[in-house]
Amino acid sequence: MDRLRYGFIACVSTALVASACSSPASTSVDGVTFPKEFFWGSASASFQIEKGNTNSDWSAWVATAGKIKHGDSPDRGGPDGLAHIDDDLRALTDAGQNMYRFSVEWSRIYPTKAAFDADTPDVEALAVYKQILEKLKAAHITPMVTLQHFTLPIYFSDPSKNSEPQGWEKPETAAAFGVFCGRMGKEFGGLADYWTTVNEPTVAPLGGYVSGDFPPGIVLAVDRFFTAIKGQARGAAACYDALHRSDTIDVDGDGKAVLASVAAHQRTFHPSDPENENDVASAERVRYLSNLWFLNTLTRGDWDDDGDMLLTGPNDKVADPAMKGRVDYIGLNYYSDTLIQFQGSVPLFKGLPTRDHLPTGRARTDLAWDIYPEGFETVLVEAAQYGYPIIVTENGLADASDKNRARFIGEHLLALGRAQKRGADVRGYIHWALTDNFEWAEGLCPKFGLYSYDAATGARQARGSVATFRSWIQAGAVTKAEVDALAPYVAPVECTK
Length: 497
Ligand code: FCB
What we know:
Elements: E1 31-33, E2 39-43, H1 46-49, H2 57-62, H3 85-94, E3 99-103, H4 106-109, H5 113-118, H6 123-138, E4 142-148, H7 171-188, E5 194-199, H8 203-211, H9 222-246, E6 259-271, H10 277-300, E7 330-342, E8 351-353, H11 373-384, E9 390-395, H12 405-421, E10 426-432, E11 451-453, E12 460-462, H13 465-475, E13 477-479, H14 480-484
Parallel strand pairs: 2-3, 2-10, 3-4, 4-5, 5-6, 6-7, 7-9, 9-10
Antiparallel strand pairs: 1-13, 7-8, 11-12
Helix pairs in contact: 7-9, 8-9, 11-12, 12-13
The structure holds beta-D-fucopyranose.
């Protein structure tokens, strides 16, 4: 069950399951070239980099003993992003990047329900996010603003009351999120065209209702998980509509004031035992629910209410106008693969993740995730069938020694190039993360940053891999020979806190 949030490929074709799996084996490329307008960026998320967030479900979760490894908190030793805006801007510029994906914290902007209802936002919070956007503009870095990245205001999601519906389980949360997005579109639309409505809509409910290591902290409540997913789909659609209504300012003059999407966490899934047809079928179900359900809903408007992979149920809908076309591009996050084992008693999934790594001996990250660039190609080709341009909104690894990062990025860019040859229209690659940060239940140990920071002064320090990554960005190209010439992967580093 550990790391279920990253867990959930097998290839059985059914009505609603994409056919990417059955497409031909990967075409090899000697290298990949990128157009001048390709987005190169890094990402962060408010709760993971800021200090002083006290009004969300995650603030309550962090304050609850035993929930976070080593009792870590972003407030004690975190990167303090809002106090280091200029340092982070310099880091982006020094890395040669032209896009920054960051999130605004709903519960910082509206600390109480009364403030939300009366629309009396915290002026300092609005000002600090505006300052980030203005500085990005001055530095010619295109912002991508995420409106919900795992956290919810405590007045919508309270982990201490988790026997009652919380967060996205409640219809009011999706409606309120739409209102919030509309206000943010009006407030920041003059400085931003690119938006992420919700980050990884399947991952937070997996952590919250299946593995239980995210708030509200329930284990194996699959029905509640699915209710939360549906709530997020409604919230993402409401957010998309509200943004398109409220933000009418086309910042970059490309004729589009709003380009919005979810950032979908896509993985490959393999059956634990490829000879076992139950494992094969449950891996397929998990792939469907994890990679496809949400995108089917927000692109085609196909609403599979009972999650049975068919659109024939009493509450199922085909091309529902209330859901269809609620993305302008596909934001795609990719990290690794998961093995799935049949477990008949688990509703919906009929299986659970066993390991995060394939049986073939692969190099691993510091969080023991397989380094599996082939899967990146697979999920990009899978997502391409929806017919939208794709922006990679997250890809990265925990690598404290930084001995694996450059090769990891190079191999993933080559995989991206192979996916492009197979029809994926990829417009950008955003690395997770700009700086080290608070990695949710794993605390401050995992080092995902292109930059480390000094815990006492907050000074940012480029890791060695930044120079290699920057040289590829500047050349607008990566060759296989360059990646092959990098040192081989080394074993992961144990966190020594
Ligand atoms: C993704 C999350 C991001 C970060 C990375 C490592 O699932 O969106 O916040 O935690 O994993």
